[in-house]
């Protein structure tokens, strides 16, 4: 990936003068392109997040082009030249957020968010852009939630909280996806990953995963960490927490039943793990997020200017 940065950019997210600022969505939309060619690269003062919901497209950055497919997204700092191309016969559906940095008037400030490790690492890295695969659809759901809030003209406290969640997730995914993994993942690791993806919400143990992968438990644990960048338990819990977040927002299922539904035998363990991962208890997460998720799109979705 070609990386470049415009130094001392006054409106950059990475400028220390932005510490007292916060994010204001200036434009947001969901749209399907059957064909689109923006032509020349352009840039603007706003930060931008583009998320590919379905299909594929090419995002051109000065110095190269990147093919994006379903579940991929890109985060662009201010004044990064870019353009979008969608080829005929390959329609692409996008979610988009354009965000201004404005003087904070409420409780949220960039300097406060920078106390969180993942976001602090992102600012320190000073990446003009980065892209990742949203494996658990957490970023997608977060953007959909924010779109819904903006349509309902939710309070700045609600939208600020929601945008904080989005930023924390993309910051985490930036460094998760940028870990250097060895090439040539062994077939038994692939079998283990597939088995976990298909069975994470059932009773699952490392021994069961190793048996399904047809390899010894000790060997699989070492190889899984080497090639996947996390432990087997971490991979299982990440999927379980992703499903738990979805159920908390979209259902009335009691929390103890959600814990069981996603594979946790102990509500206390589930609550502790969920709180550490999301910064809120399951009950608090449900209160903040409830009623704001919007799954999928209508056929006639078009660009919507933020109120």
Q: How does this model look, in words?
A:
This protein is α+β, with helices and mostly antiparallel strands. The chain folds into two domains: 16-178, Jelly Rolls, CATH 2.60.120.280; 187-289, Homeodomain-like (Arc Repressor Mutant, subunit A), CATH 1.10.10.60. 42% of the residues lie in helices and 21% in strands. It contains eleven helices and nine strands. It has helices spanning 110-113, 117-125, 138-151, 156-177, 187-199, 206-213, 217-228, 232-250, 255-261, 267-278, 282-289; strands at 21-33, 36-37, 47-61, 64-69, 72-76, 82-86, 92-103, 129-133, 303-305. Strands 1, 2, 3, 4, 5, 6, 7, 8 and 9 form a nine-stranded antiparallel sheet that branches. Strand 3 and strand 4 form a beta hairpin. Helix 2 (117-125) packs across helix 4 (156-177), helix 3 (138-151) packs antiparallel against helix 4 (156-177) and helix 5 (187-199) crosses helix 6. The longest helix has 22 residues, at 156-177. The protein starts with 20 loop residues before the first strand and ends with a strand.
Lay out the secondary structure.
Layout: E1 21-33, E2 36-37, E3 47-61, E4 64-69, E5 72-76, E6 82-86, E7 92-103, H1 110-113, H2 117-125, E8 129-133, H3 138-151, H4 156-177, H5 187-199, H6 206-213, H7 217-228, H8 232-250, H9 255-261, H10 267-278, H11 282-289, E9 303-305
Antiparallel strand pairs: 1-7, 1-9, 2-6, 3-4, 3-5, 3-6, 3-7, 5-8
Helix pairs in contact: 2-4, 3-4, 5-6
SS elements, strand count: 9
- What is the CATH architecture assignment of the largest domain? Sandwich
What is the CATH topology of the largest domain? Jelly Rolls
Question: Which homologous superfamily in CATH is the superfamily of the largest domain?
Answer: Regulatory protein AraC
The rounded distance between the terminal residues' Cα atoms is 36 Å
- Multimeric state: single chain
How much of the residues is beta strand, in percent? 15-25%
Number of domains: 2
**Radius of gyration in whole Å, from Cα?**
20 Å
Helix content: 40-55%
Mean pLDDT: 82
The tally of helices reads 11
